[in-house]
Specification:
This protein is an alpha/beta fold and about 350 residues long. It folds into two domains: about 120 residues, Rossmann fold; about 180 residues, Dihydrodipicolinate Reductase, domain 2 (2-Layer Sandwich). About 40% of the residues lie in helices and about 25% in strands. It is built from 14 helices and 15 strands. It has a seven-stranded mixed beta sheet, with helices on one face. Strand 11 and strand 12 form a beta hairpin. Helix 5 packs antiparallel against helix 14. It binds nicotinamide-adenine-dinucleotide. Nicotinamide-adenine-dinucleotide binds next to helix 1.
Length: about 350
């Protein structure tokens, strides 16, 4: 069987994670080409990856190479145009979170994929992480009864690229860092957001606040889901210790904790140092396996003609949560979401 030929669009931080996995760790896939608006970077990364073809935009790639699928790892504000172009060319789409900048863009992406009959999977890789999967399985088995309260936090060790610090091109930290938490709560609660209240502040990066008036580097979000489950999201970036992604589900009969600070089960102790353990330096380390499983799932869905576990609709609902939380930050009041 011919491999699924994938082209990675945007070979920055996330792009190189996906490109490397598609090249080395995804049976049934081949990395056909890379694209980056910065052609020199595209060439350098293509060389590093051992890929012959590189381009500076998606249109050229779609024109010149036979592509079955693309992986979108460009800045958020470019996702919609690229996804729609790919769908119209018949290419399946794995799109990094946040899916898009606006709900209109997300709707257009879903519609384009539906009309073309191509897969659209959104990059919520926590759903492929062994710890998060085990938690969901225990919840589904009823091990802790009914979920009552779900907390999810993400803290990043360093600032993301510049475009992601500007809320106009990224929707800010809740989108760039905490999209995952919005998805986690929807997924674990199996319900949609009903009401959202958020508070945010700039407590560290005062220079960025001066440059981008809507910037914030710390946020908390209170949520009420339609089925009554309560949720809480916490975000902070940058923090002074490493990458941190954890969740807790309090159920009617018990509690489930997901994730920990420590990256390996090794602790040393001396009188001089006390207990010494190591933590996750970054998201690539914490979710290494999940990114591979996510890409494998995408390719498997194409080969076996299955619907991805994380759909465009999931991407859109998480985005809606982020947008409403940002609105709540600006207005200072809780906001109810319409629709079903
Ligand atoms: N799932 C995760 O854990 C995770 C982690 C990091 C980033 N991301 C997401 O991945 C996406 C990219 O983030 P990043 O941190 O890798 O950004 P980045 O700035 O490091 O890389 C983006 C790359 O895209 C290129 N680019 C910009 N516009 C382009 C266009 N129109 N066509 C082709 N290339 C273009 C840039 O030159 C750059 O090299 C974002 O949506 C981000 O939220 C997800």
């Amino acid at each position: 069987m011919n491999p699924v030929k994938v082209c990675v669009i945007g070979v920055g931080r996330a792009g190189m994670v996906h490109a490397t996995n598609l090249k080395n760790n995804v049976p049934g896939a081949s990395l056909a080409a890379v694209v980056d608006a910065d052609l020199e970077l595209a060439e350098e990364r293509a060389r590093d990856l051992g890929v012959d073809l590189f381009f500076s935009d998606i249109y050229e790639a779609l024109d010149r190479v036979e592509i079955d699928a693309i992986c979108i790892t460009t800045p958020t504000f470019t996702h919609a145009e690229i996804a729609i172009a790919a769908a119209r060319a018949g290419a399946h789409i794995l799109c990094e979170k946040p899916m898009a900048l606006t709900l209109e863009e997300a709707n257009d992406m879903i519609q384009a994929a539906d009309e073309a009959g191509v897969k659209l999977q959104v990059g919520f890789m926590r759903r492929f992480d062994p710890a998060f999967i085990a938690a969901k399985e225990r919840l589904d088995r009823g091990d802790i009864g009914r979920p009552m309260l779900i907390r999810s936090l993400t803290r990043g060790p360093g600032l993301p690229p510049r475009w992601a610090c500007d809320p106009c091109t990224s929707n800010g930290m809740l989108a760039e860092v905490n999209s995952h938490d919005f998805d986690t709560i929807r997924w674990l609660a199996e319900s949609e957001f009903e009401r959202i209240y958020a508070e945010a502040n700039t407590l560290k990066c005062f220079d960025l606040k001066e440059e981008f008036p809507d910037f914030y580097d710390n946020a908390i979000v209170s949520l009420r889901m339609k089925n009554g489950t309560l949720g809480m999201i916490e975000g902070s970036c940058p923090v002074g210790y490493g990458y941190d992604a954890r969740a807790e589900v309090l159920g009617s009969e018990g509690v489930i904790l997901v994730g920990e600070l420590q990256d390996t089960a090794v602790v040393s102790c001396t009188k001089r140092t006390g207990l010494v353990a190591s933590n996750f330096p970054g998201w690539r380390d914490r979710f290494r396996e999940a990114y591979i499983a996510e890409a494998r799932h995408f390719v498997e869905c194409i080969i076996e003609r299955k619907e991805p576990k994380v759909t465009g609709e999931d991407g859109k609902r998480a985005l809606e949560g982020v947008l409403v939380a940002n609105k709540s930050i600006q207005s200072g009041v809780p906001i109810s979401l319409g629709g079903s």
